[in-house]
Amino acid sequence: MDQTNQPYHVAVMADEIVELFAPLSGLIVDGTFGGGGHTRALLAGSTTLRILAIDRDPEAASRAERIDDPRLTFVPGNFADLESLLAGLPDDGDGDGGGRRLCGVLLDLGVSSRQLDEPQRGFSYHKAGPLDMRMGPDAPHTA
User: Fold this and answer.
1) What is the pTM of this model?
2) CA–CA distance, 116 with 101 (Å, rounded to integer)
3) pLDDT of residue 52
4) 20-50 b/e with 16+ CB inside 10 Å = b?
5) What is the separation of C-alpha 26 from the centre of its chain, rounded to a whole number of angstroms?
6) Are 22 and 46 in contact (CB under 8 A)?
7) Going by C-beta distance under 8 Å and a sequence separation of 6 or more, which residues neighbour residue 92?
8) What does CATH list as the number for 14-109?
9) What would the pLDDT profile of 53-104 be if each residue is shown by its tens digit?
10) What φ, ψ does residue 23 adopt, rounded to 5°?
């Protein structure tokens, strides 16, 4: 069941993330975009940050499309492939590679409460469902 119109989960440390990254200027990678809570908070808390959001869950892409901000670039994929994902970004044109220069990386690792709550995702230990446990449907092996 696609719950993209339902509330996702609350990024409980969003204020702390903004406090840490907002003074910076440049590109931040949100390598585990999920519901986009950290990215939304960073975009609201700073005018100088750009965000490259990465997630392998197809639902994350539909959530990213709802954020109307030119400073956000969403790329479906795995943060383990960060080097090649960065290489695919356009340079900002000033010749110093600054369009791809990172000033920070955010990884909120682990499964989300949403993934645990949806039995069809295969992570739940409270609800009956297939034992899948893949972060994205294109992963080759289930649990």
Assistant:
1) 0.75
2) 35
3) 95
4) ebbeeebbbbbbbbbbbbbbbbbbebbeebb
5) 17
6) yes
7) 98, 99
8) 3.40.50.150
9) 999 888 889 999 999 999 999 999 999 999 999 888 876 655 555 566 789 9
10) -70, -15
- Residue ranges of the domains in the chain? 14-109, 110-143
The residue behind tokens 């795995």 is: 78
Helix axis angle for 14-21 and 37-45, nearest 10°, is 40
Cα–Cα dist 62/91, whole Å: 25
- Both tokens assigned to 110: 């682990």
Q: What is the 3-state secondary structure (H, E, C) of the chain?
A: CCCCCCCCCCCCCHHHHHHHHCCCCEEEEECCCCCCHHHHHHHHHCCCEEEEEEECCHHHHHHHHCCCCCCEEEEECCHHHHHHHHHCCCCCCCCCCCCCCEEEEECCCCCCHHHHHCHHHCCCCCCCCCCCCCCCCCCCCCC
Query: Per-residue pLDDT tens for 27-42?
Result: 999 999 988 999 999 9
Distance CA 86, CA 75 (A): 10
Tokens 């600054």 found at? 98
Closest listed residue to residue 77, CA positions, set 104, 62, 55: 55
